Amino acid sequence: MSDHLSMSVPNKPEYVNVIRLTASSIASRVGFDIEEIDDIKIAVAEACTNAIKHGIKNDQENFDVEFYMDCDKMMINIIDKGVGFSLDEIEEPDLINPKEGGLGIFIIKTLMDEVNISSDIGNGTCIKMIKYLGVDI
Ligand SMILES: Nc1ncnc2c1ncn2[C@@H]1O[C@H](COP(=O)(O)OP(=O)(O)OP(=O)(O)O)[C@@H](O)[C@H]1O
Ligand SMILES: [Mg+2]
Questions:
Q1: What distance in Å separates the CA atoms of residue 113 and residue 59, rounded to the nearest whole number?
Q2: pLDDT at 136
Q3: In the chain, N or C terminus with fewer CB closer than 10 Å?
Q4: Which residue out of 50, 80, 86 has the highest number of ligand 1 atoms within 8 Å of its CB and is therefore the one to mutate?
Q5: Distance CA 100, CA 71 (A)
Q6: Which residue lies with its CA nearest to atom 11 of ligand 1?
Q7: Which residue ranges make up each domain of the chain?
Q8: What is the pLDDT of residue 137?
């Protein structure tokens, strides 16, 4: 059975750092090393920024962040009830001729061991990401 901790976060960029620091402190409790903690912080910040920048259009609406801590892994869910998007429209970034933007989801998938995105136009987005202890990628 894993421990879990949930936060309801205001839809404002200044709170992304609060979530980054919370993720960092939980990840260090689980036992991740400094590099892995940095990866988790970057992935969490990208997902929170997406919820704020693309998802929620109403200033007064919060989004949710859930952390699940296990002996061998950490799972983070970032859930917004915003506009949602079509996963089919997300293109793989062209790393040879990079464009500006469009890298967040790619970065999250690169840094975390498992990533699952579900999104529904008009109903919002849930991104689940897992990092396992002691797995080199
Ligand atoms: N939570 C979300 N709600 C609605 N749309 C989203 C959400 N997350 C991602 N998207 C859509 O997916 C696209 C790709 O997201 P991604 O983070 O990869 O790139 P970006 O945010 O456009 O650019 P970058 O993250 O590099 O600044 C976004 O442009 C947006 O259309
Ligand atoms: Mg992004």
A1: 32
A2: 62
A3: N
A4: 50
A5: 38
A6: 85
A7: 3-132
A8: 55
